Amino acid sequence: MLLLKNILLAVEDSSAPVQMLKALLDLSGSRGARITALHVVKATPSAQKYDESLLRGREILEKTIAQLALPPEYELRTVLRTGDPKDVVCLVAEETNASLLLMGSRGLNAIVAILKNSVSQYVFQRASCPMLLLRDGFYVNRLRRIAVAVSDTMASKFALKTAVDLARQIEGGQLLLIRVRTRQLDPGETLKVDKPEEESLLLATAAEVARQQGVNYRTLYGVGSPGPEICRLAEENGADLLVLGCQDRRPTIARNLPDLDRLLGNSVSDYVRTNASCPVLLQKTAE
């Protein structure tokens, strides 16, 4: 599976991203993957503090190697860099041509993240590869249920393909197909809650894709604001991973500039990233 062939793991003190990576490496599509474990040391005027940070960084990388305990079929390299973590993570992702970036997140909303100089918020804006975020306190030992938000965007179609590919590799796994209707119910209108596919052609089409691939699935339909509804349906149905397509609406010349809607917290992806009760895999695709 291309997504799992060249993984960049940004490591800090938390072991959650390492545990998430181990869960991904249990999937057959990860065989022979190349993994880069990156730790970034912030520059400091104090030589003593800098040396201490370098030593701590080496210890973190050594601990990561021990925790992963990878068999010989995997290629693992460690990278210790100095600089601003936000810039270095993006740079190394480009240098390694990463197919997936995996890192932790404090789950801050957009404005707070900016004010607190959040690494994950910045990288989410700049990185072009898929990004898997784990909020503090989340641990995944095994993937069972993969949720994906279904819409009519190209990014959503890529996200659906990724979710189906992941679910196919999980013995006894299940794909949760989520569709949210933003228009409120008309007076007297009721939902066919037991037949969600009859409520949405997009949902029915996604279900057919899953059937063709032999994937066990459930369809889920909500009404309301997309971000909260996606998070609610994923949590209520026990999702271990939520896959979400993200439209990059900026022109190519401005791709290195932040997306104002996301900076202000007006996007579905920003809400889900900061509020989902499970790890979130974000796939950014040009509109």
Q: Provide the CATH superfamily of the largest domain.
A: HUPs
Kindly give the count of domains.
Answer: 2
Structural class: alpha/beta
CATH class of the largest domain: Alpha Beta
**Main sheet overview:** 10 strands, mixed
Which overall shape is indicated by the principal axes computed on the Cα atoms? elongated
Number of strands: 10
**Helix run count:** 10
Low-confidence blocks of residues: 107-117, 259-265
Q: Strand sequence of the main sheet, in spatial order? A: 3-2-1-4-5-10-9-6-7-8
Topology pattern, helix = H, strand = E: EHEHEHEHHEEHEHEHEHHE
Task: Indicate the CATH topology of the largest domain.
Answer: Rossmann fold
Portion of residues in beta strands equals 15-25%
- Rg calculated over all Cα atoms: 19 Å
For the termini, the CA-CA separation is 24 Å
Organism: Gloeobacter kilaueensis (strain ATCC BAA-2537 / CCAP 1431/1 / ULC 316 / JS1)
InterPro entries: Rossmann-like_a/b/a_fold (IPR014729), Universal_stress_UspA (IPR006015), UspA (IPR006016)
Protein name: Universal stress protein UspA-related nucleotide-binding protein
Pfam families: Usp
